[in-house]
TrEMBL record:
This is Putative ABC transport system ATP-binding protein. SMART domains: AAA. One of its GO terms (cellular component) is plasma membrane. The keyword Zinc-finger does not apply. It comes from Desulfosporosinus hippei DSM 8344. Residues 2-224 form the ABC transporter domain. GO terms for molecular function: ATP binding; ATP hydrolysis activity; transmembrane transporter activity.
Length: 224
């Protein structure tokens, strides 16, 4: 499903050239639960942006579901993000003025799903993450763990091939964080491909496979 071949990315910070990724090479298959783990400044955020089609490599190749990302237009990349990738962020990124049901509906509205159908589906996705009785609650009326569950339901609502979760437990206490990881594992058991970005080795070990990145390079890739 995902193949990166010798991917590099360089940024200029002032007059200094910084190589955020240096000859990254790995594959991720359909249905895997993979954690990308590394300390702050290791390059994992840059790698996440690449995986999420928010950026493209300076060198190397990136194929997502057979699509050559390097040669895709901005419109093509936006379409890929909207249809193939469900994003889950550390700080939830819910719309504060919308209730949980409405937040889950948003991606479907952009896809042109009718109001009645999007409401029905949003309710089903909330039930899938255990929040069927919280649909009318706004984010401020929900706990952090509940907000992250809404965010996961929202990610699922675009029927993505991949859920890309960026530090999804970072704003949560340990108990709630474990519950969110358990939910991701349940979704993976149902066939969902999940890529988890984290700096926490304990969290990373909950995935079926870990890709370690340090100083922009893969330091350990046991199942390439």
């Amino acid at each position: 499903m995902i193949e990166m071949k010798n991917v590099s990315k360089t940024y200029m910070i002032g007059d200094t050239e910084v190589k955020a990724l240096d000859q990254i090479h790995f594959q991720i298959g359909k249905g895997e639960f993979v954690a990308i783990v590394g300390p702050s400044g290791s390059g994992k955020s840059t790698l996440m942006n690449m995986l999420g089609c928010l950026d493209v490599p300076d060198e190397g190749e990136y194929f997502l579901d057979g699509i050559d990302i390097n040669n895709s237009s901005d419109n093509d990349l936006a379409q890929i993000r909207n249809t193939k990738i469900g994003f889950v962020f550390q700080n939830f990124n819910l719309l504060s003025k919308l209730n949980a049901l409405e937040n889950v509906e948003v991606p479907m509205m952009y896809k042109g799903v009718s109001a009645g159908e999007s409401k029905r589906l949003a309710s089903a996705y909330l039930e899938r993450v255990g929040l069927q009785d919280r649909g009318k609650h706004t984010p401020k009326e929900l706990s952090g763990g509940q907000q992250q569950r809404v965010a996961i339901a929202r990610a699922l609502s675009c029927e993505p091939q991949i859920i890309l979760a960026d530090e999804p437990t970072g704003a949560l206490d340990q108990k709630t964080g474990r519950e969110i990881i358990c939910l991701l594992k349940e979704l993976n058991a149902q066939g969902q491909t999940i890529i988890l970005i984290t700096h926490d080795n304990n969290i990373a070990q909950q995935a079926n496979r870990q890709i370690c990145i340090i100083d922009g390079q893969i330091s350990e890739e046991p199942r390439l």
